[in-house]
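Protocol step 4 of 5: obtain the predicted structure for the target chain.
Materials: sequence only (see below). No template structures provided, no constraints applied. The aim of this step is simply to have a reference model before the mutagenesis design in step 5. Sequence pasted as it appears in the construct record:
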Amino acid sequence: MTGAKIAVLGTGIIGAPVARNLSEDFAVRVWNRTRAKAEELAGNGGIEVADTPAEAVAGAGVVVTVLKDGPTTLEVMREAASGLAAETIWIQLGTVGVTAIEELAEFAGRHGLVFYDAPVMGTKQPAESGNLVILASGPEDARAHVQPVFDVIGSRTVWVASRPGASSRLKLALNSLVLALTHGAAESLALAEALGVDPRLVIDVVAGGPLDSGYFQTKAAAMVNGDYEPAFALANAAKDTRLILEAARAAGVHADLAAGGLRRFERAMEKGHGDKDMAASYLAG
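Step 4 output (structure tokens):
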């Protein structure tokens, strides 16, 4: 599949490095609603910038969407529809939730697209280094065509199911854990500071013990150093939390930690921290 044409719709924190990495093995054309973000990729490995979604997907054998939510993804694919050919492979990398993934799969079916539900685990740095974990669901007969794409952008592909939807459900369960760890670190450090203890002592005591992890060290260091360069924006984390709560309610699960975490995110956004990394949960007060 080397040399095949791929369209990447959405060139944000994850989409931009995905496009750059893909351009090493494929011909890549990109589109972004804010064109300036797409223009930053122009010339990287021969990446072309399109003016519209329809122009971006025209002639592409694979379309990759990396957009902020389900409604946005559906809107952009509708704009792209006139440029889509039947049997085009559509790889959907975003976190869109249970309801939206069904709507996207329905759109794919109406347009004769081969649809892969493939949300990713990982943020900016893993995306840049090609070390995302791909949670993939989709038809078995075309996997040989999508696996080379996954191998470029990720270090591991977990095949979840043969029908789209299962991967998006798994992603919500995994994000529930990620967000709980983020808020747990934020509350622990904030409580230490409020009680007159250096929060760095929390990090020091945890280091090397059973509570330690690379994730804890990264987020805790960002919190105590005030480094909120977004690897995953707080506002997007709040969006994902709402998707978790919606899915949990439908499934009859009480997602108490997610509900409390959403309140922290909302307080942080009220203070103007929505564009910062989700580690800004520490600033919720």
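Step 4 remarks: The beta strands are 5-9, 27-31, 48-49, 62-65, 89-92, 114-117, 120-121, 132-137, 154-161. The longest helix spans residues 166-194.
Proceed to step 5.
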